[in-house]
């Protein structure tokens, strides 16, 4: 008998575990910072993860009535399966909305705190507003799915369901994808402007690369919705599984991506130990410097070079090290189910922050000037 339920298990458990580990590591990295205290994004990340945990649980709980198995092979009446499907879908639509929506605020809040002197401050404000509007639109569309609301899962109740899958798709799924791509580009633009070697730029940008996974899951959800809309013979429990898979990936990858940029302080000792091993290999196999009585022999050009650090250099180094501080301080029923998660069956132009910026300081006779 065909069974795709293991696919849902893998899509739910693997990203959820990664998100849970990332969240715990995020809290640990805050405690390793010089000012070990949680900020509002950390509390919001915990709330978003708790809501996302509920969504993941419901996604797996749906398999009790046969999600992932062809409808004809499930030993339950079809009307009972349809009722279970849409009742569970009604619950997880709300959890998806607030879990993914709050994750957007967590990441944007982190950007706002990190890139204090940046040209992307205004785009961050705009994305805050867009994310809030996205949540409001989803809540509105969920509430307007059917009148009365009970008809959404009970076909015997008189009423109507005016929402179509394409309305939901262009109302929430496509905007979700656009917002996620914009959130991904914000730090990349700023990182590329830093006065750093290309290798370091790539290393810093890699900490934000997990946002590509969220964009990928959102894009896959849109593509699946369009493909399912064109399919003539739809199987509610078989074809609808793909929508659930991409939705649960979207939720948990969003949590993972919000915590990943903060994990450097936690993993730095590991990288440092690896670096010590490799440096040991290099020192044992490389040539030693000439010495005289245990002291290095001065050579032409061996004197250390001094370089003045301008404002952009200071800002660049601070931005690269932000993680060290934890931040700088099948039927009509099937038609109705399509895209229900998204939506049915995710100093040039620099704005100065508050506070005092010290560009250079020099100590003369005990006084700083």
UniProtKB/TrEMBL annotation:
GO cellular component terms, semicolon-separated:
membrane
Tell me, in one coarse class, where this protein mainly resides. membrane
| Superkingdom of origin | Eukaryota
Which InterPro entries did the record assign?
Answer: Rhodopsin_dom_fungi, SAT4-like
Instruction: Kindly list the places in or outside the cell where this protein is found, as annotated in its UniProt entry.
Output: Membrane
Q: Which UniProt keywords apply?
A: Membrane, Transmembrane, Transmembrane helix
Could you tell me the membrane topology recorded for this protein?
Multi-pass membrane protein
Which Pfam families has this protein been placed in? Fung_rhodopsin
Q: Which residues cross the membrane?
A: 6-28, 40-61, 93-112, 124-144, 173-192, 204-224
Report domain Rhodopsin positions: 26-268
Q: List the residue ranges of the region (Disordered).
A: 283-312
Would you tell me the protein name for this molecule? Rhodopsin domain-containing protein
What species does this protein belong to?
A: Dothidotthia symphoricarpi CBS 119687
